[in-house]
């Protein structure tokens, strides 16, 4: 009787962790080693995708650049800290051809840098603190992009009458001053154009916000740290770059 | 003989005189050595302007680096895959969401060979996923909300790695007696349960600090997987088998990748009727 009662209270069974280990030794070997489990794993192409991806990296890059990876195993010394959107289309490793060891990366919705706030934004603060104080990066790039969903949400809500989102609206609201400015100055233009202006405005806002972090302000004023804005337009395959505080924009053809 | 070479020759002769004046019995030895030196200088052909023999190192130009990087991408990838980029211009539908450390050595675009459009990425210190908190962690919440509810990703991977600075800090502070950071310690402290687990379980063992850090990095991934389930929309999609949750670990010292899965299962209830 007591066993039945204790079974009756057990209606959830969480956290079965099954281990698949991939170790690549040679190109042609079947090198996926599955440990013994008591659970039969269903075939999932996503697993193959991940493991094949690693094998490709291991054979075509890791194994062919032993000096680089021996050096990186000892430590990292990136020259860049890059803020980029989480969007799957804008990885700086692709877009700016960064190689392992080149860039310390932060990726979030709409590549936003919030103001110094140890309670609300410890995540961003931690990445800045580590990059600037520990690694001594010399260049911070805030890279925005075309067709950004986060910027679009900022520009759409609440005017579109939709229900609030649990997190997204709180996060993008730091861009409200930019939205206000865009609507005031470009209220008559096409909505998508307004979004693009807003995206660029938010990059400049983020660059401003960087200086609210004392260690960033210090390094910047001592000319040990450059702040740069960038914009990747994947509709037209173009990239713009500008130095914080200047009006000079470098555009790739 | 150019003035440079004659200067050097004079210098060698003066040196010889000085050395010999101090140690007369070394005169022959000194003479031979200094003569060899003069021959070497001659052979370096100091008759002309001094030309450095090694590669010239120019100062690093970050602007040029970024522009060149984009041009490389544009010509080698963007322009050669018009169908892909036309499709991506209309929208994204990645199957994966990946949490990876901000560390410059572990980008999933390299390590897992992800291509544009394949993975919605979040990168932060020590690839951590905090528990649901609309005040303290709106950033991570926003990425999860967008990926799961708006994009409908089918897979989340939390990928840890070897030699993680954030994990090392978690394991070191405050026991190392250092001063607190403004942000880092507050951020990594969400990993304290992983640290406690490692320290408790390794207390009787012989693992060194580095090994404990590597263990903590893996436990922290598991902790993040558990934290994912504190987001209602994640839990719902996961229990409905629309969303797989996996942990990964990239060891860049040895070139090894590990992958595992968090599987949740709600059994059928047992009914007690009396």
Automatic annotation (TrEMBL), chain A:
One of its GO terms (biological process) is carbon utilization. SMART domains: Pro_CA (SM00947). Zn(2+) binds at residues 85, 87, 145, 148. Its cofactor is Zn(2+). One of its GO terms (molecular function) is zinc ion binding. InterPro entries: Beta_CA_cladeB, Carbonic_anhydrase, Carbonic_anhydrase_CS, Carbonic_anhydrase_sf. The keyword Zinc applies. It is an enzyme of class 4 (lyase). Pfam families: Pro_CA. It comes from the Eukaryota. PROSITE patterns: PROK_CO2_ANHYDRASE_1, PROK_CO2_ANHYDRASE_2. Binds 1 zinc ion per subunit. It catalyses: hydrogencarbonate + H(+) = CO2 + H2O. Belongs to the beta-class carbonic anhydrase family. Reversible hydration of carbon dioxide. PANTHER family: CARBONIC ANHYDRASE. This is Carbonic anhydrase. It comes from Rubus argutus (Southern blackberry). The lineage of its organism: Eukaryota, Viridiplantae, Streptophyta, Embryophyta, Tracheophyta.
UniProtKB/TrEMBL annotation, chain B:
Keywords: Lyase, Metal-binding, S-nitrosylation, Zinc. Pfam families: Pro_CA. GO terms for molecular function: carbonate dehydratase activity; zinc ion binding. Its cofactor is Zn(2+). Binds 1 zinc ion per subunit. InterPro entries: Beta_CA_cladeB, Carbonic_anhydrase, Carbonic_anhydrase_CS, Carbonic_anhydrase_sf. It catalyses: hydrogencarbonate + H(+) = CO2 + H2O. CDD domains: beta_CA_cladeB. Its EC number is 4.2.1.1. One of its GO terms (biological process) is carbon utilization. Zn(2+) binds at residues 101, 103, 161, 164. Belongs to the beta-class carbonic anhydrase family. Reversible hydration of carbon dioxide. This is Carbonic anhydrase.
């Amino acid at each position: 009787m007591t066993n039945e009662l204790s079974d009756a209270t057990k209606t959830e069974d969480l956290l079965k962790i099954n281990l698949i280990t991939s170790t690549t030794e040679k190109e042609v070997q079947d090198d996926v080693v599955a440990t013994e489990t008591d659970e039969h794993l269903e075939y999932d192409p996503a697993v193959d995708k991940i493991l094949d991806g690693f094998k490709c990296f291991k054979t075509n890059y890791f194994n062919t650049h032993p000096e680089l990876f021996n050096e990186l195993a000892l430590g990292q010394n990136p020259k860049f800290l890059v803020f980029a959107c989480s969007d799957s289309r804008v990885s700086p490793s692709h877009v700016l051809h960064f190689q392992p060891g080149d860039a310390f990366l932060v990726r979030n919705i709409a590549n936003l840098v919030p103001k110094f706030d140890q309670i609300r934004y410890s995540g961003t603060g931690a990445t800045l603190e580590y990059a600037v104080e520990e690694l001594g990066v010399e260049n911070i790039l805030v890279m925005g992009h075309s067709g950004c969903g986060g910027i679009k949400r900022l520009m759409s809500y609440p005017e579109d009458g939709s229900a609030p989102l649990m997190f997204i609206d709180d996060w993008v609201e730091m861009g409200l001053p930019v939205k206000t400015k865009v609507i005031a100055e470009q209220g008559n233009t096409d909505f998508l154009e307004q979004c693009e202006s807003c995206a660029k405005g938010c990059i400049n806002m983020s660059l401003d916000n960087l200086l609210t972090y004392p260690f960033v302000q210090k390094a910047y004023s001592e000319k040990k740290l450059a702040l740069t804005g960038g914009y990747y337009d994947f509709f037209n395959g173009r990239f713009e770059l500008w130095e914080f505080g200047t009006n000079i924009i470098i555009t790739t053809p | 003989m150019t003035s440079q070479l004659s200067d050097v020759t004079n210098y060698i002769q003066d040196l010889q005189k000085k050395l010999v004046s101090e140690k007369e019995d070394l005169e022959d030895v000194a003479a031979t050595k200094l003569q060899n030196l003069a021959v070497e200088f001659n052979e370096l052909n100091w008759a002309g302007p001094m030309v450095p023999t090694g590669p010239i190192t120019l100062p690093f130009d970050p602007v040029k680096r970024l522009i060149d990087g984009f041009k490389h991408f544009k010509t080698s990838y963007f322009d050669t895959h018009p169908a892909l980029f036309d499709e991506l211009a209309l929208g994204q539908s990645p199957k994966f969401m990946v949490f990876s450390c901000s560390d410059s050595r572990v980008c999933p675009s390299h390590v897992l060979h992800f291509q544009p459009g394949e993975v919605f990425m979040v990168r932060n210190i020590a690839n951590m996923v905090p528990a649901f908190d609309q005040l303290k962690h709106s950033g991570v919440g926003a990425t999860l909300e967008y990926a799961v509810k708006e994009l409908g990703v089918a897979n989340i991977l939390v990928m840890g790695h070897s030699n993680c600075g954030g994990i090392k800090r978690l394991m070191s502070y405050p026991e190392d007696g250092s001063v607190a950071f403004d942000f880092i310690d507050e951020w990594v402290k969400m990993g304290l349960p992983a640290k406690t687990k490692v320290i408790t379980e390794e207390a009787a063992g012989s693992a060194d600090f580095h090994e404990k850090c590597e263990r903590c990095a893996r436990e922290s991934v598991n902790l993040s997987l558990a934290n994912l389930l504190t987001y209602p929309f994640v839990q719902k999609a996961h229990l409905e088998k629309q969303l797989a949750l996996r942990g990964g670990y990239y060891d860049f010292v040895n070139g090894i990748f590990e992958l595992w899965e968090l599987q949740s299962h709600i059994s059928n209830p047992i009914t007690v009727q009396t």
